[in-house]
């Protein structure tokens, strides 16, 4: 079990060894992130980033969007998720 958090930028993650070869992701965005359209946009972005990473066996991961994620760019979200999971950039 691994816990990472970025209080400065965008997301918190929690990872554990998965049972399968691929990764499984759960994405959480509370009302602290913003109104429904903002939360949905952040979830869609994080889901797409997770699809990129899914090819690499990182285990079971829960990504929790922090309030700053609503104002973060795509690049910031992507690099932060990859950094927190320890996945090399491609």
Describe this structure in words.
The chain is globular. Helices cover 33% and strands 24% of the residues. It is of the alpha+beta class and 90 residues long. The chain has one domain: Ribosomal Protein S5, domain 2 (2-Layer Sandwich). The longest helix is centred in the middle third of the chain and has 18 residues. The chain is built from two helices and four strands.
Can you give the mean pLDDT? 78
Order of helices and strands: EEEHEH
Number of helices: 2
Order of adjacent strands in the largest pleated sheet:
1-2-4-3
Overall geometry: globular
Summarize the SSE layout with pairings:
Layout: E1 2-5, E2 11-16, E3 24-29, H1 36-53, E4 60-65, H2 74-85
Parallel strand pairs: 3-4
Antiparallel strand pairs: 1-2, 2-4
Give the tags:
alpha+beta; Ribosomal Protein S5, domain 2; 2 helices; four-stranded mixed sheet; 33% helix; single chain; globular; 90 residues
Provide a short characterization of the protein structure.
By secondary structure, the protein is an alpha+beta fold.
